[in-house]
UniProtKB/TrEMBL annotation, chain A:
Protein family membership: Belongs to the ABC transporter superfamily.
Protein name: Bacitracin transport ATP-binding protein bcrA
GO MF annotations in UniProt: ATP binding; ATP hydrolysis activity
Annotated SUPFAM superfamilies: P-loop containing nucleoside triphosphate hydrolases
TrEMBL record, chain B:
Organism (species): Bacillus thermotolerans
Protein name: ABC transporter permease
Any Pfam family hit: ABC2_membrane_4
Domain of life: Bacteria
Classification lineage: Bacteria, Bacillati, Bacillota, Bacilli, Bacillales
Membrane-crossing residue ranges in chain numbering: 18-34, 66-83, 104-137, 157-175, 182-199, 234-253
Amino acid sequence: MSETILKATNVSKIYGKHKALDKVSIEIKRGVIYGLIGENGAGKSTFMRVVMGLITMNEGEIELFGESSAKGLQRARRKMGQSIETPALYPELTARENLRVQAANGGVSEREIDDLLQLMNLGHTGRKKAKNFSLGMRQRLAIASTLMTNPEFLILDEPTNGLDPSGMVEMREIIQRLVTERGITVLLSSHLLDELSQIATHYGILHEGKLINELSREELARETRQYIELETTEVEKAVAVLDELGIKDYEVINRTEMNIYERLDDVAAINRSLVLADVNVSRIGTTRQKLEDYFLQLTGGNTHA
Amino acid sequence: MLNLLTAERIKLLRSRKLWIVLSILFLFPIYQAANSKMVVHYGGKLVQATDTVINGATGILMIDKNGLTILLVMSAFISFFIGEEFQNGTIRNALSLGRSRTHYYLSKLVTAALVSLVGVVIMTVMGMVSFSVVFGFGEVAGISDYVSYALKTFSTLYVLILANVSIYVTISFLTINSGVSLVWSFLYTIGTGFGAGIFQQTEHFKQVTFWFTESFLFYSDFASPAGIAKYSEMILVSLITIVVSSALGIILFKRTDIK
């Protein structure tokens, strides 16, 4: 069984009368890319800040790398890196100098700076100051900065925010590479489920400070995959026909509706078999629940996702 | 904490603000020596009690002569130096690595103290050199052991500055914004510098005036025996100010949510 990197139990954070986090419990195992999804103001950044010890929580417990005491958490955070919201850089310094500062902060050698600049495609920036970088370059430099201390667990808050499509693809590839090549566990957030679904292996859906659902990539794919929707008044007879056709992956939703998850290209053949077996088919056709629709369904609608 | 100080060194050496501050403190004495020369040239006379620095020897009192300027320049520098860490979010980079907030606070205080030390040393040396060139080295009236006097006076004046630097650091950590910090630091400097004298008008609270280090800095004569006799009191008040403001700053900073 893989090691638990982060275990948050019933974490709550209250600002005045507003509950930014309401008893959020999340467990992240080593090697996972955990995507935290939620609209703006759902509590994603607040949760990340609590994990990093930047803000205090009103209730709950955080365990990092098996440590939960104040001193233990301080030690554990040395194995972590973060880039929360906007890239936190010194605008007057070059890429190399920014990394030197972070190396000093972490008390680590500056040996890796050249490799990281190359890895993040920033080797050519020379004496150019960070304030003159494009947003994509700043994001990449912020991630390089988090990697200076060789973290085992990376927290990235909306790393693709504001990037153009090619920048988003590049960022996804970088994160993927960090996981496969360096074995880093990642917690990242986005308000775009579609964007996150291309990289995350596990998902937590935050809504108004509450974790309303947690699911794996497979579960999400299942929830949102394409299927044949069948409407009939004779579900039992339809099931018998499907069994005869050798179709095993289907689901009876209620007394008049069924979803069929295989042979999606054979709608006509399935329909013909049902009709020949005297099954009264009211409607049949392929459909797909979009990720956005799924998210809206979970959060009750009013979102940007 | 040494790691954090190394990080501060890298940032400072590339900081345009640092070089602006040091340039001001470097050039100001030259301007003042030239200005004093003009005063004498047009028939005026320099008097130590009012002009403070009248020759190379009295140049050791440059901090006293330029107390308000040094405080305003340092308050601006510290407000930006600390406030920008919050505004750029770079403070997260150090704190999220599990660095102790106490160490972070102290590293900023030590850095601000070192910058102000370098600044006042430059100003004093430049003052002594400039005034020596224009008026000769001369002497401080009534002082027989100049080296001892110079060391004690410079140290006392620096500690008085340091007490204010400590307050500015506290204000910066509490306001977590350069602009707001600048305003409050300015108000504190003006308020305690020129408002503390109000207590002198009362019968029972006269002593309160000298609970503020600026009262010593602005109103004491550091070349008179009465002023020199108060050095230990000045150092005591300064040290209490540094300890109290730093303790308060650290306690409140530990409770601050970092955005």
